[in-house]
Amino acid sequence: MLSITYFTYEKLINLSLTDRRIIALYQNSPNEKEVSDFLDLLKKEQKTFLLWRYAKHDPYVSTEQLAGNLSWLYDRNIINENELDQLRSNLLGKNNDGQVGFKFNQVDN
Q1: Quick check: 49 and 41 in contact, CB under 8 A?
Q2: How many CB atoms lie under 10 A from the CB of residue 6?
């Protein structure tokens, strides 16, 4: 997984990976706009993936875990406060069925 935190030093941008490797990008190679667009695309794709992974309705995930996932996304600046409020109202209301982490299905015999 890619951590899109980056550091700029003399027009060198280092992308830190979660396994502690670094991908170095030159800010002006091929040009500054293309590098900036590439970084914006990475951030967008990261957000899309993390929302898909951690901010979706799942009957097997408890309300507490889902709330924790949303807080985790907010704490890491993946989502802003408005998005957090929107996701809480959309997801936590749907997952409040009195079951914690699993779902029972009635079987008629």
Answers
A1: no
A2: 16
